[in-house]
Amino acid sequence: MVLIEEFEKDLTKLGNDYFINELIKVPDIAAWARENNTDLTEPHLPMKLMVKNEDRLSMVIQSEINDEMLSNVIRNLGIRWSVKDNVTDMEKKLNSTRKRLAYCFLKEYARSLQKSEGDALSEDEWVLEEMEYLGYFDE
Fold first, then answer.
1. Segment 60-119, tens digit of pLDDT
2. Closest alpha carbon to 61 in 30, 29, 31, 85
3. Nearest 5°: phi and psi at 58?
4. Per-residue pLDDT for 31 more than 90?
5. Which of 57, 58, 113, 139 minimizes the number of CB atoms within 10 Å of its CB?
6. pLDDT-based confidence at 5, cuts 50/70/90?
7. How many CB atoms lie within 10 A of CB 71?
């Protein structure tokens, strides 16, 4: 089980880097979405970017994430990525909880970018470029 509070410093820094003003921790993201009449376009992600008011972005994050949920996110990335590159093993590339949470955070953010136009592979490419730029793969 991944406890988000253990990674709150990393996620807060990511939020600051991408103008996300607030991290909102909830026990169950699916239940939160139902209660708030919000669609989870990526129901397998433990995060949801939302506009709290006109000038504030917030990231809603499930406070406890099952390890299998994170593994499935990375496995799905690997399947999509194999169309572009069938040599890179995404499970090895994103080999820590810190990297996997950063991927989820940036993937949810990438969905809001107009240049990706809803193309999951373009979003993945942007996320991996950002993670490289931010030094996640220097570890």
1. 999 999 999 999 999 999 999 999 888 999 999 999 999 999 999 999 999 888 666 678
2. 29
3. -130, 150
4. yes
5. 139
6. very high
7. 13
Q: Note the pTM of the prediction, 2 decimals.
A: 0.93
97: which residues sit within 8 A by CB, 6+ positions away? 2, 7, 70
CA 12, CA 57: separation in Å to the nearest integer? 13
**H helix count then E strand count, the chain:** 6, 5
Both tokens assigned to 2? 């991944």
pLDDT (tens digit, 9 = 90+) per residue, 44-64? 899 999 987 777 899 999 999
d(CA 47, CA 41): 11
Look at residue 20 and give its three-state secondary structure: strand
Angle between helices 67-81 and 97-110 (to 10 degrees): 60
Separation between Cα atoms, residue 24 and residue 118, nearest integer Å:
24
Q: For residues 108 and 25, what is the distance between their CA atoms, to the nearest angstrom? A: 15
